[in-house]
Amino acid sequence: MQPKERILEKTFTLFHSQGYNATGINQIIEEAKVAKASFYQHFKSKEDLCVAFLERRHSFWFNELLKFTSNVEDSNLKVIASFDFLIYMNKNENFRGCSFLNILSEIPSDNIKILNVIQSHKSDLRVYFKDILKDDLLADHIYLLFESCIIESQLFKSNQLIEQSKKIIQTLILK
C-alpha cells in the first residue's frame, strides 16, 4: 500500500474511534509507518487530512447504506431498512455514532473547509430520503428522526429509540 493510502486507512480508524482532536499527526505518521515528509507531501495540514477522511467516510457510509438497502424494492420499506442500517452500524462500530457530527463538535465554528464537507454529507442524506419518498416534508421528518436516532443511540449505547422510530415511521408512511 502506498504511503497516502496507509495514512488515510489509519486516519479512517483513528479519527472515527478516538476523535479528531484526540488524534495527533505524529500518531498517524507512526501507525501508518510513513515519514513525516511523506505525510506533508500528501496533506498540507491536519485540516486537509480531515477533509480527505470525511470524504472517504462519506463514500464508505453511503456505499454501506445503499448495499444494505439494495434488496428492498418498496420505498416505504426501504426507509425502515435505512433505520435497520443504523442498528447494523451501531453493532459494527460499537455505538460510535456519526463521524461527521463527532468532528463537528470538535472543530471551531469558523472552520468552513471541514464544515462544508459535513454539510454536504447531511444534505446528501436528506436527498436520499427525498428520492425515496418523493415528499419533501415527509422526507425531512424522516431525516430528522434518523439524525436524532444516531445521536441518541450513541449517547445511550442503545438501539431502543431506533426501534421506536421505526414504529413512528410505520404510522407515518405505512398507512
Outline the fold blueprint.
Layout: H1 3-18, H2 25-32, H3 36-42, H4 46-69, H5 75-93, H6 99-104, H7 112-133, H8 136-156, H9 160-173
Tertiary shape: elongated
> What structural category do the secondary elements indicate?
mainly alpha
So how many helices?
A: 9
Helix share bin: over 70%
Largest sheet: none
Q: What are the secondary-structure elements, in order, as H or E? A: HHHHHHHHH
* Rg over alpha carbons: 18 Å
Q: Which stretches are low in confidence, meaning pLDDT under 50 for 5 or more residues running?
A: none
Strand content: under 5%
The chain-level mean pLDDT equals 96
Distance between the termini: 52 Å
Question: What's the count of strands?
Answer: 0
